[in-house]
Amino acid sequence: MRDAVTSLIDNYDLKGRYLDRDAMDSLKSYFTTGMARIQAAAVINGNAAAIVRQAGTQLFEDIPELIRPGGNAYTTRRYAACLRDMDYYLRYATYALVAGNMDVLDERVLQGLRETYNSLGVPVGPTVRGIQIMKDIVKEQVAAAGVESSSLLDQPFDYLTRELSERDI
Ligand SMILES: CCC1=C(C)/C(=C/C2=NC(=C\c3[nH]c(/C=C4\NC(=O)[C@H](C)[C@H]4CC)c(C)c3CCC(=O)O)/C(CCC(=O)O)=C2C)NC1=O
Q1: 42, 113, 143, 165: most buried, per Cβ within 10 A?
Q2: pLDDT tens column, 113-148
Q3: In terms of domains, do 8 and 88 share one?
């Protein structure tokens, strides 16, 4: 698992090079956004359960078939599994946000997910929709808390949805 700093150092070390102007720029941008990353993560941590609940409610309003007989989130057990997955996505998104690097998402979340979702018939489109809904809620709450973090917040959520979609589950 890497963060913005270790991955940069790894790259330069591989080439046996000193950190150049580009490296300094990217380090600078990581550190100047550091406080915003931490503050945004704190807002999410303090509201995680409510964010997941609200996103779930909205998702099932948007796509009610999911919780009807034959839907993948039908039955209490599967409904709970779906919300638990949403909670995973939210928690790991905060790790990636703080790290300034998406590596943790590849390693801990996305690896093997395709096979699992495939074998259980968990539909990807609605999962992606659920992640997007969480992104919107998070952005609203973080902005309401007065944290300037605009595009930083998009990164982990967009990465998850892009990778999930591209992996063609
Ligand atoms: C931290 C990394 C991590 C992830 C991401 C993860 C996902 C994950 N989701 C699962 C199941 C599931 N995931 C869902 C999710 C949904 N169904 C829907 O219709 C919705 C679209 C969606 C919610 C948004 C459901 C319903 C199940 C249970 C399916 C079943 O058992 O039939 C399973 C199978 C095992 C289990 O039920 O616990 C895994 C491993 N586990 C992990 O350890």
Answers
A1: 113
A2: 988 999 999 999 999 999 999 999 999 999 999 998
A3: no
